[in-house]
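Run log, item B.
One chain of 532 residues. Sequence copied directly from the ordering sheet:
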Amino acid sequence: MTAAALDAGPPAAPVGAEPRINWTILILGFAGMVIGQFMAILDIQIVAASLPQIQSGIGASADEISWIQTAYLIPEVVMIPLSGYLSRLWGTQRVFLISCGGFVIMSIAVGLSSSVEVMIFFRAIQGFVGGAMIPTVFAVAFTAFPPAKRVTASVFIGLIVTLAPTIGPTLGGHLTEALSWRWLFFINVPFGLLSFFLVWRYANFDKGDASLSKGFDWLGLGLMAVFLMSLQFVLEEGSKNDWFADDTILLLAVVAALCGPAFVWRSLRYWNPVVELRAFNNRNFLVGTFMTFTVGAALFGGTFLLPLFLARVRDYSPAEVGTTMVVSGLAMFATGPFAGRLVRVLDLRILMFGGFMMAAWGMWDAHAVTTEWGFWQFAGVQALRGSGIMLAMIAAQQVTMSTMPPHMVKNASGLVNLFRNVGGAFGLAYLNTSLTTNTAIHMGELTSRISVTSTGMPDMLAGMTARMAGSIDPEGAAMKAISGMLQREATTLAFGDAFALLAIGCAVAAFVTLLSRPVKPGTGTPPPADAH
């Protein structure tokens, strides 16, 4: 039997007959996979909120601690597209169980680590094995569920994909303060075991095709791994190391530029490729992956900017940052059910357009941020951004996946999730560079204006010097305080620029959505007259 036949599932029921589905087993198995997916996505942001505490706990330097995140993300991007091939080879259930079991074991190992080197090692394995839990859930939603129920499954997936990064800082901050940073990893154990049990007991959705192991494309896998890991490293570390001024970043950028086209060429020419790139022949899939790329940038970019601003400018604690961020999660959770209904009645292009424009509106409002902004000022911004991303995410999933032939769904699911992660990496790299560059620019502008036009600076300096009279060097302390005030203002202006960049990106994506083909509301299928 061929892989296509296996992926297509059991034979279709006779015309006019309803396929018999044991909904209890299907829902329990799918729920187990969703729990695992939530756990894998959450693990990125829940750790990001408490890196300073981890740093002090294991005695790592500032440069070393960033590798706790980088070591997780680099191997993960290799497993995400590879998971489609493994699911066709071994079956979805076996791949998920191996991924979930390995993730739980590595979570314990990371939590027990006493040195940064050991933690980075186990964190890399955790990211690699856990990466398969994310795309397999998408594939099941579009293969195990009948067409009429796929929208509902997509709503649950959309909630998980958007909620996990949003509540990560909240949960991470409170866990670290209430218990310790080690519980950021130990918390995966009970949920991982529950996920493992449910999938083992109920999620036997398909069978693998052992014949796919013949002629396995090791060269294609090597090219893909080198390309994706090099690209991810450049995006993660480039802004910290002045991009191409750093020899390592330059070398890996060249490696990625060479291996990327070579991987594409190999995948298109080889008879049994690791990743089937012909999915991009489908116009809706092509547009949908661009939408997913933008959703990743908006989702992870917004989740990156706001906590960083609150910590850097407002000096919020991790718990205070988490409390402020919860508005976005609540907005997404509230929007999900409405998005599921709208998908059934409206043209999906309208939903994507409206969702991206809502997110753009929220981000644009934040470009006027000041040093006094806190929970209430960001509440409206987060509500618009959260609701907009949820609408765009669910509509984009339908446009991207529902027009794919059944035998290509698993492979396409890996590509969609890869584009979301890479979009997030691109967004973070660009925003990091923007913050660094624009902070320096605004600092220069502020100091130049003071030196040329300010008449009150001598009085301010004198007043600050008087207040610092008890210090060893009152005038030096006063100058340092004024410099800190200017730096804080320049940083705030740079954050405003970064929010504006996200708004422009979402607005551009909104108009690109109009290029996709029309899709029947509620079915995820193209109109009969529309050729694919």
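Observations after the first pass:
- Residues 1-18, 523-532 have pLDDT under 50 and may be disordered.
- Residues 409-453 form the longest helix (45 residues).
Flagged for discussion on Thursday.
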